[in-house]
Amino acid sequence: EQEPNLPPLRANPLRLRQMLDNLIGNAIKYTPTGGQIHIKLRSEDGQLILQVSDNGPGIPPADQPRIFDKFYRGENVPDDVPGSGLGLAIVKSIVDSHQGRIWVESALGQGSTFFVVLPAFVPPVS
């Protein structure tokens, strides 16, 4: 879902693609067959807000502060789910390099929503 007439963003397109690949890839990886993933892009107060939501297993509250750390994997990740624990660390570094913010809201058994907020590009006034 995307709002019409979103403001421009000054960003590295390859890095943003990598960010999206990781966030959407995680949602796919952790959502069970037949589950749902929602992606929403909107603008608010000079910022672009991306939401990637799934109805997977959710992230335990104790794990949430550490999921953006390198090599960290949640306690409830099944052994057969591949991953290095680097994806979200990479996403955070991309968001940080674009002067943005990222966080997660999650409830066990109900899924997770990742929020990325990036500043919209404001052309200099000459």
Count of individual helical segments: 2
Helix fraction bin? 10-25%
Encode the helix/strand succession as letters.
Answer: HEEHEE
What Rg, in angstroms, do the CA atoms define?
15 Å
* Strand order in the sheet with the most strands: 1-2-4-3
Total strands? 4
Instruction: Report the mean per-residue pLDDT as an integer.
Output: 86
Instruction: List low-confidence stretches.
Output: none
- Beta-strand percentage range: 25-35%
Pairing-aware structural class of the strands and helices? alpha+beta
What best-fitting shape do the alpha-carbon axes yield? globular
End-to-end separation: 35 Å
Largest beta-sheet characterization: 4 strands, antiparallel
Describe the SSE topology.
Layout (H helix, E strand, L loop, with lengths): L12 H18 L6 E8 L2 E8 L32 H11 L3 E7 L3 E9 L7
Antiparallel strand pairs: 1-2, 2-4, 3-4
Can you tell me about this structure?
Helix content is 23%, strand content 25%. It is α+β, with helices and mostly antiparallel strands. A 4-stranded antiparallel β-sheet has the order 1-2-4-3, with helices on one face. The termini are far apart.
Q: Which keywords apply here?
A:
single chain; 126 residues; alpha+beta; 4-stranded antiparallel β-sheet; 23% helix
Write a short abstract of this structure.
It is built from 2 helices and 4 strands.
